[in-house]
Amino acid sequence: MPAHIVMPSISAKPKIAATKGYGANVVFSGSTSVEREAVVEKVIAQTGARLVPPYDHPDIVLGQGTLGLELQEDARDIIAVAGGGFPSSLSPSSFPRRGESAAAEIGFRAEITNPKIPESKATRRPGLDAILAPCGGGGMLSGVALSCEGTGIRVFGCEPSFEGADDAKRGYESGTRVEAVSTLTIADGLRTPVGLVPWDIIYTRRLVSGFYSVSEEEIVSALRLIYERFKMVVEPSSAVPLAVALYNEEFREMVEREGGEDGWDVGVVLSGGNVSLEALGKLFAPKEEE
């Protein structure tokens, strides 16, 4: 079955190469969602293909939202083990020993040191207090929000602020969805406006608690930390939620105010690795003094 993939001509070279490598026919468009949708309509008219939207469809939202379920489960297990407990899939009787050998059997390489868990958290089921996720078209963010409905976990959207790329934040705060975005933020995966289906989940149903945005410099700083400390290959869009956690003072003050001395356990979504070495070199190159 032939697949026709419409993407902006300025898309990351690795993304274009990978898409072609999978056997797809790549059709280029302009950089805005309006230009892209016009090319999509033309392709459909010429080929009779059926559109699979990148984010604005309930099935896409639900599929992307499964990462929220996995993140919650993994976080519960990590927090439980750190507090001296066991992963939810295992029973204490299965691991009578403590220390390095038991930790290895559970899946942890180092010895579990059982750090002290604040009393306020020790009395409740371990889990996240909040999740930070990037927002472009909103498919993944709204899916994660659905996965957290009824759990008490608060979900926040994260965007670049460059050239109006924070359309979801502005729309959320004004009560009106921003329908068009034109920006050349380095977080190229987040250059699209929020779709109608995600908007209903994000704003109308209020399953997203708010939005925060960060500068290009803060995104690069978070990206550098991921590469140098996490040893992970990600694109700038992926670093936006971490940048919010590290540098957005409004978010940090809110966590300090509402989390108190114990703070919050925050899940940070890193999604996307379409970046070229040439682009990374330019991002991390020393800035020339004017």
Description:
- This protein is an alpha/beta fold.
- It is 46% helix and 10% strand.
- It is built from 12 helices and 6 strands.
- It has helices spanning 13-21, 33-47, 58-82, 100-106, 119-122, 139-147, 167-174, 196-204, 216-230, 236-247, 249-259, 277-284, and strands spanning 4-8, 25-29, 130-134, 154-160, 210-214, 266-268.
- Helix 3 (58-82) packs across helix 6, helix 6 (139-147) packs across helix 8 and helix 9 crosses helix 10.
- The protein is globular, with a radius of gyration of 21 Å.
- The termini are far apart.
Unreliable stretches (pLDDT < 50, length at least 5) are none
Order of helices and strands: EHEHHHHEHEHHEHHHEH
Mean pLDDT, to the nearest integer, reads 89
Radius of gyration: 21 Å
How much of the sequence is in beta strands? 5-15%
Structural class: alpha/beta
What characterizes the major β-sheet? 4 strands, parallel
Q: What kind of assembly state do the chains in view correspond to?
A: single chain
Proportion of helical residues: 40-55%
Q: Please state the overall shape, judged from the principal axes of the Cα atoms.
A: globular
> What's the count of strands?
6
Number of alpha- plus pi-helical segments: 12
Strand order of the largest sheet: 5-4-3-6
| Ends distance | 53 Å
